[in-house]
Structure formats: C-alpha cells, structure tokens
Amino acid sequence: MADDELEAIRRQRMAELQAKHGDASNNQQGEEAKQRETDMRNTILAQVLDQSARARLSNLALVKPEKANAVENYLIQMARFGKLGGKISESGLIEILEKVSQQTEKKTTVTFNRRRVMDSDDEEDY
User: Fold this and answer.
1) 3-class SS at 49?
2) Biggest CA-to-CA distance, the chain
3) pLDDT averaged over the chain?
4) How far is CA 119 from CA 11, 112, 123, 126, in A?
5) How far apart are alpha carbons 47 and 117 in whole angstroms?
6) Mapping DSSP to helix (H, G, I), strand (E, B) and coil, where does residue 44 land?
7) Cβ distance 45 to 57 under 8 Å?
8) Residue range 58-83, pLDDT digits in tens
9) Which among 49, 89, 52, 95 has a CA at the least distance from the CA of 72?
10) Which of 57, 61, 91, 111 has the CA that lies 20 to 30 A from 119?
11) pLDDT mean over 25-38
C-alpha cells in the first residue's frame, strides 16, 4: 500500500513539473511573439515617419502612452492600406495628433445632485 501511495505522489509531482515546464515554454513563446510584433511595428513606423516625427512620437509615448499607441495604430493602418504618400514629417504628425485628440477628446459634464435635508425652514412648527 505504501508503494501505491508513493507511486501516486510521484505521478502527481511529475504532472506538476510537466505543467510548470509547459507554462514556461508558453510564456517564452508569448514573449517572442510580443517581441516580433514590436519589431514589426517599429519597422513600419521607421518606413513611414521621418526622424523628427519619430522623435516627437517617442516623446509623446513617454508622456501619454495610450495616445501614442493610438497614433501608431492609425499610422500602421494607413500604411497597410497604402494611403500614405511617403514619409510623414513632424508637421504631418502634428496634424494626425490633432485629429486623434479631437476623436478621443473626453467631454466632461458636471451634474449637481442636490439632496433634500430636513430643514427647519421647510416645516412650519409653531
């Protein structure tokens, strides 16, 4: 009976090790896929933007990463569909940034929710 229990523990431990090793290889493959995607994005952006525009976009990425990511996605989409007629200069990038800012601009509204509190002014108790 002790041999059966020992064998069951060994099988369980072996399954855990295999699962852990499988997860590590999946993580490594996921990291490699992310690295390939990042390299591809950088290559496309290098082909589409001139040096000053890339510098401005990298500065924007430091301050507002979500906006820079939106602009990068927009530029990559335009490049894939062939709607860009050459390299984009810094002034062209500024125009694109303004378009993206207008599209993603958050409209803030303030609403007052007044609660009625029992005041002595509301009731006439004499």
Assistant:
1) strand
2) 92
3) 82
4) 74, 19, 7, 14
5) 64
6) helix
7) yes
8) 999 999 999 999 899 889 888 888 88
9) 49
10) 111
11) 82
- Name the 3-class secondary structure at 121: coil
Which CATH class for the 2-90 domain? Answer: mainly alpha
Determine contact, residues 104/70, Cβ cutoff 8 Å. Answer: yes
Identify which has the larger pLDDT, 19 or 97: 97
CA distance 7 to 9: 5
Give the SS3 label for residue 70. Answer: helix
Instruction: Locate 1 and state its tokens.
Output: 């009976």
Structural domain spans, the chain: 2-90
DSSP bridge pairs for 49: 88
Name the residue with tokens 């050459």.
86
Residues in the chain: 126
Q: Is the pTM of this model over 0.70?
A: no
| Residue 11 token pair | 């099988």
